[in-house]
Amino acid sequence: MGEKITSNWTTPAQNWTSVTEFILIGLSNNPETQKVLFAIFLMIYLLILSGNILIMITIVLDQGLHTPMYFFLSNLSFIDICHSTVTVPKMLADFLSAEKTISFGGCVAQMFFLHLFACTEIFLLTIMAYDRYVAICNPMHYLSIMSHKVCLLLAGTIWLGGTIHSLALTGMTIRLPYCGPKMVDNFFCDVPPVIKLACTDTYVIEILIVSNSGLISVVCFVVLVASYGIILVSLRTRLVAGQRKALSTCAAHLTVVTLFLGHCIFIYSRPSTSLAEDKVVSVFFTAVTPLLNPIIYTLRNEDMKRAMNKLLGRKVDTEK
């Protein structure tokens, strides 16, 4: 009898998935704390939606912002909305619920879209660094290199890359047998805490995750830092005014990159062992970074502030 169980547990290919739902441990089990967290994260989510939607509307309506840089920025805002929507609404509902359950299918969907938007954002941040490199280091040929056709091609490529990455990661996860433990040690379904619940040895899967997600994060981070390093070196020969604007843009990008990729490197560049810091880092990854993006790209960007003031002025005039 014991030999039969051991044999099944070491054969992931068999259809041993008997778990129909998972239980999310969440951020807190204290009812009063959950009410406070609900109010905080509801406000954060509403700010994420309003801030990123405002950025997209401003870019669409202002002809002066129809450039490659702002095309990619509007894509970033759209991804941030999608990325936060994958996890935050479910977290808000769980704050008001006694049982924080999620169906097996819902868990798989959450993992798929989480990695789709996260990986696409990593690729997008890399493309944005390349865009700034061309704009600052080769300004005479910028519009020919980053033409509208090229921008659309790059956008399609990063979405395709994110889809392939997410399908591969989710596919490996759902093929594992789940036959008992249901407690996911987080407030959303992610690959590392979910595969810990599998009734089989997941060492090979963990290595594949590190070599996939971890490698993508580290390589993109190195490429981004190198790109901005080259940009900063080239700025030494520029005029002070040009330096200030370019440095402001690069500083904004580096802030976003550090916050976003820092989480990916921390979570996916090691085996799936739970650390006390995982949930804190995950909060920054799913809620805080999408909130900071519109702040960073508007408060540090004179063109965006001018365009937004112009847009709000039109609304006031229209109301009058």
TrEMBL record:
Name the UniProt key words of this record, in alphabetical order: Cell membrane, G-protein coupled receptor, Membrane, Olfaction, Receptor, Sensory transduction, Transducer, Transmembrane, Transmembrane helix
Instruction: Tell me where in this chain the G-protein coupled receptors family 1 profile domain is found.
Output: 51-297
Q: What is this protein's name?
A: Olfactory receptor
Tell me the protein family, please.
Answer: Belongs to the G-protein coupled receptor 1 family.
One of the record's GO molecular function terms? olfactory receptor activity
**GO CC annotation: what is one?**
plasma membrane
Cell location: Cell membrane; Membrane
Q: How does it sit in the membrane?
A: Multi-pass membrane protein
Q: Transmembrane segments in this chain: where? A: 36-61, 108-130, 150-174, 215-235, 247-268, 280-299
Q: Which organism is it from?
A: Python bivittatus (Burmese python)
**Could you tell me the superkingdom of the organism this chain comes from?**
Eukaryota
Q: Which Pfam families match?
A: 7tm_4
